[in-house]
TrEMBL record:
Keyword terms: Glycosyltransferase, Purine salvage, Transferase
Organism: Petromyzon marinus (Sea lamprey)
GO molecular function, one term: purine-nucleoside phosphorylase activity
Binding sites annotated in the UniProt record for phosphate: 38, 69, 89-91, 121, 225
Protein name, entry field: Purine nucleoside phosphorylase
GO cellular component: cytoplasm
Family membership noted in the UniProt record: Belongs to the PNP/MTAP phosphorylase family.
Gene Ontology biological process terms from the UniProt entry: purine ribonucleoside salvage
Keyword Transferase: yes
Protein function: Catalyzes the phosphorolytic breakdown of the N-glycosidic bond in the beta-(deoxy)ribonucleoside molecules, with the formation of the corresponding free purine bases and pentose-1-phosphate. Preferentially acts on 6-oxopurine nucleosides including inosine and guanosine. The purine nucleoside phosphorylases catalyze the phosphorolytic breakdown of the N-glycosidic bond in the beta-(deoxy)ribonucleoside molecules, with the formation of the corresponding free purine bases and pentose-1-phosphate.
InterPro entries: Nucleoside_phosphorylase_d (IPR000845), Nucleoside_phosphorylase_sf (IPR035994), Pur_Nuc_Pase_Ino/Guo-sp (IPR011270), Purine_phosphorylase (IPR011268), Purine_phosphorylase-2_CS (IPR018099)
Pfam families from the UniProt entry: PNP_UDP_1 (PF01048)
Enzyme Commission number: 2.4.2.1
Gene: LOC116957105
Length: 304
């Protein structure tokens, strides 16, 4: 493909090459992909009959550099459903473009994935939240995207999605309802909220003034990932569920002596890993009923 026809750095053929590389090395044929955020990678170890690949060995995958992101892709069974699971992700602040950090999402699409479950760690802005709570992402404020760092910037390949996607329904309402129901069945409703996730690129955590600004904008939590993946996934027709673990409260008060740090983020992740894994596994267990290869449109009817 000529450079002018490329989506940007990558062509459709690059995504296809990686998809075929993976599918030719595993017999698993997943419909569900899961991305594990900071410290949440143990979810991947729950997969049965797993085939494991290191990102460094996968064509065009980037290596992870951040503690809590193992950098392995696992195929296997979770709650009886065939899944592919990213044990860690790469972030823009590691020096990568939005297109690079979302590369796996389009590979998943070409592998036949229908549902993408994203997880991440973030700071709570909503005063009703506390560290250890889980937020189902209802909507987002993509600060890098609003500033031009959107993964869809560049020539659009119609095989991957439309030029001007409307993002009002990015986070599938039926999946969110299913997740809330599962949370109630598991008796963890009091931990689970629905809210708006804001992304800034990082790697700095927010100043007090920035946290106040983001809260005033309507954000309930702020993180450094997930939204570019969600945008790319929705663009190419995947159903998206995003679960944010509130690992700390963003500092919104000059009198506070709290200082956000990655060790605290990983500590809270490890404390809540089992709850989040249980929730995600139970949701995945509900997905099979509507994964009949029919594509995204049937989700709401089937899961309700
Ligand atoms: O990959 P996620 O978004 O879960 O990781 C968050 C954002 C930064 O990478 C890190 C900051 O502590 O955690
Ligand atoms: N931007 C941001 N990302 C985080 N990831 C985990 N905690 C935080 C936080 O407080 N702010």
């Amino acid at each position: 493909m000529a450079d002018s026809q490329r989506c940007g750095r990558y062509s459709y053929e690059d995504y296809e090459l990686t998809a075929q590389w993976l599918l030719s090395r595993t017999e698993h044929r997943p419909k569900v992909a899961i991305v594990c955020g900071s410290g949440l990678g143990d979810l991947a170890t729950q997969l049965c009959d797993a085939n494991v690949f290191h990102y460094r060995d996968i064509p065009n995958f980037l290596e992870t550099t951040v503690p809590g992101h193992a950098g392995r892709l696992l195929f296997g069974l979770l709650s009886g459903e065939v899944c592919v699971c990213m044990q860690g992700r790469v972030h823009a602040y590691e020096g990568h473009s939005m297109e690079q950090i979302t590369y796996p999402v389009r590979v998943f699409k070409l592998m036949g994935i229908e549902t993408l479950i994203l997880t991440n760690a973030a700071g709570g802005l909503n005063p009703d939240y506390k560290a250890g709570d889980i937020m189902l992402v209802r909507d987002h404020i993509n600060l890098p995207g609003l500033m031009g760092l959107n993964p869809l910037v560049g020539p659009n390949d119609e095989r991957l999605g439309v030029r001007f996607p409307c993002l009002s329904d990015t986070y599938d309402p039926a999946l969110r309802r299913a997740c809330s129901r599962v949370a109630a069945q598991l008796g963890v409703t009091e931990l689970v909220h629905e809210g708006v996730l804001c992304m800034q690129t990082g790697p700095c955590y927010e100043t007090v003034a920035e946290s106040r600004l983001l809260r005033a904008f309507g954000a309930d939590a702020v993180g450094m990932s997930t939204l570019p993946e969600a945008v790319c996934a929705y663009h190419c027709g995947l159903r998206v569920l995003a679960l944010t673990l509130i690992t700390n409260m963003a500092v919104c008060n000059y009198r506070s002596e709290e200082r956000t740090n990655h060790a605290e983020v990983l500590h809270t992740s490890s404390m809540r890993a089992v709850a989040l894994q249980t929730l995600v596994s139970a949701v995945v267990g509900q997905l099979g009923q509507f994964h009949r290869g029919g594509g995204g449109g049937g989700a709401a009817a089937a899961i309700d």
